[in-house]
Amino acid sequence: MNLRDTLTLSFSTVVSYRTRSLLIVLAMALGVAAVVVLTALGEGARRYVVGQFSSLGTNLVIVLPGRAETSGGFPGAALGQTPRDLTLDDALFISHLPQVKRYAPLNVGVAELSAGGKLREVTVLGSTSELLPIRHMKLSQGSFLAHGSERSAQIVLGSVLAHEFFPDGNAVGQRVRLGDSRFMVSGVLAVQGESMGFNSDEIAIIPVDYAQELFNTNTLFRILVEARSRNAIEPAKAAIAHALKLRHDGEEDVTVITQDAILATFDRILRALTLGVAGIAAISLAVAGILVMNVMLVAVAQRTSEIGLLKALGAPAADIRRLFFAEAVWLSLAGGAIGYALGNAGAWMIRLAYPTLPAWPPAWASMAGVATALITGILASLLPAARAARLDPVLALSGK
Amino acid sequence: MIRLTSITRVFRMGDQEVRALNGVNLDIASGEYVSIMGPSGSGKSTLLNVVGLLDRPDSGRYELDGSDVTDLSETERARVRREKIGFVFQSFHLVPRLTAAENIELPLMLEGIAPAERKSRVDAALDAFDLKDRARHRPAELSGGQRQRVAIARATILRPTALLADEPTGNLDHRIGAEVMALLEGLHHAGTTLIVVTHDRELGARAHRHIAMRDGEIVGDEK
Predict the structure, then answer these.
(1) So what's the pLDDT on residue A71?
(2) Which long-range contacts (CB under 8 A, 24 or more apart) does B116-122 make?
(3) How far is CA A226 from the centre of its chain?
(4) Is the confidence at residue A75, as pLDDT, over 70?
(5) Closest alpha carbon to B160 in B61, B53, B21
(6) CA nearest to B155 within chain A
(7) Which residue, A78, A337, B99, B202, is most buried by CB atoms nearer than 10 A?
């Protein structure tokens, strides 16, 4: 019997046992679909996190006051000292380091914004003109804080704020009151949405000196630094830590983190998570494989007299083995293909329901899912096929 | 030409040995029409299975068309069955999900014959057995006589030298049974060796040579 006839004959068998075939294909398909959907979710989560981080800025080094220690407290705490604060002078000092491309000091606080008889509480960022390029922000109108004019009373509004206070869209050039001071709107940020749980559409940005005045402080919340290149991130981190240690009387009382390190950690965790869920989903495929084996064994028992007939007609054992084997291949192929389609449809629905989550199933997972379905189905058919081929023709003909 | 020499076939049932065939010697020439008769358990079906290479004797020698087929491997036995032997069964043994034409085509498919030639040979067989308008029907949609005609067409499509029929009319009424027998006898006239196993005396009497069996031995052989 040639290959084509084996395939067509087994295909017609699969088609004629409709319910049985549908159930196996369904079990296989659900297994494959589970692999595809779960890895799409895992991969989507990973891409989401990576995307969020890169929207913060590239080659970013963040300096924050205080030292994150895993053991023990701040050494000076017993003497009544507190960790030294970060100041604008520290920021200026860092900016002279050769590895640093640009920097932006950052103050964060809450203040009341009022204009045209409206009033609301807003999150206020105090920074410099460099914040715009470092944080990859975009303007929809006007200009950002003017360079080198930290003393001018400018304010940049988030898109939602601008719309709330100036519904007619003419925010630029308008005067607003923030706390007790008056500011002129120089620009409006483009719509950016939420990023790392922080909605940049509802913030106001003012020059850092005004912010320190407003919040009655002379310390900084963060210093954002952009390194010259990707390779300069680690040297920049070391140089900043060293420089601030020198400035702070040899005390290591700041924490310098790089976005890459955090990103790499998240990336690793989420990749492992994706692999893990793929593995769990693959177990369902193994279960489907056992189901295929069971159903094929039943099929051999049911079709005993037919196998006897084929033997009487002169079919060698190899032909009979191949017929059952081909049946399993058809079932697994159909299961794999339908599962792949179902999984991709599932991932598509997830993307529809949660547009921010890029739930695209990775190619390796789809291929591995379909391949696992094929391999388990084929492996599971080996035993039943061998059993069918071994049947004694006389006994088989009488259905025993 | 079929030559069996001291063929013995023993079945074990629990701790008891049943000698289904006990030192059977039998020569059947090409083109003979033989009936094998005997009560149930006399070994006539086992004899037919050994002749048809479905069963292996425990001892003895079997020569078919001048060559020793006693010790052939399973694959070689399958090939000999395919090329030289056609079976007709009491219960037809048609594949229920295949149409009449597809059932007839099965041996051609197993032989590896190209589809175009298969089709012309199947069409010829459908014509010869008056099944033209039933070609696309499944066995469940055929009458008993039609089913047995499909089975005979299938058994003869590769032009075997011997046609082995085990109670070919056992599931058919008298009139249809006679039609089927006439069909088989027509094939015999065309040169095929025909061996019919039956316990129907009337049917057995139609053959040209009558073999009687009892307890695994041949107790009568007359022409």
Answers:
(1) 45
(2) B121/B157, B122/B157
(3) 24
(4) no
(5) B53
(6) A313
(7) B99
CB contacts, 8 Å: A318 with chain B = 75
A318 touching B (Cβ < 8 Å): yes
Specify the 3-state DSSP secondary structure of B52.
Answer: coil
Give residue-wise pLDDT tens across range A26-63: 988 998 898 899 889 888 888 888 777 777 777 888 88
Query: What's chain B's average pLDDT?
Result: 92
Beta-carbon neighbour count of residue A80 at 10 Å? 6
Instruction: Decide if A7 touches B, using CB distance below 8 A.
Output: no
pLDDT average, residue stretch B83-110: 92
B186 in Cβ contact with B111 (< 8 Å): no
CA distance B119 to chain A (A): 14
Residues of A in contact with B80 (CB under 8 A): 314
H helix and E strand count, chain A: 12, 12
Please report the ipTM that was assigned to this predicted complex: 0.92
Q: What phi and psi values does residue A221 have, to the nearest 5 degrees?
A: -80, -45
B1 close to A (CB below 8 A): no
| B107 reaches A (C-beta below 8 A) | yes
Domains and CATH numbers, chain B: 2-222 (3.40.50.300)
User: With contact defined as beta carbons under 8 Å apart, do B165 and B88 qualify?
Assistant: yes
Residue range B170-217, pLDDT digits in tens = 888 989 999 999 999 999 999 999 999 988 888 889 999 999 999 999
Taking an 8 Å cut-off on Cβ atoms, the answer to whether B49 and A311 are in contact is: no
Decide if A312 and B93 are in contact by the 8 Å CB cutoff: yes
CA A400 to chain centroid, in Å, comes to 58
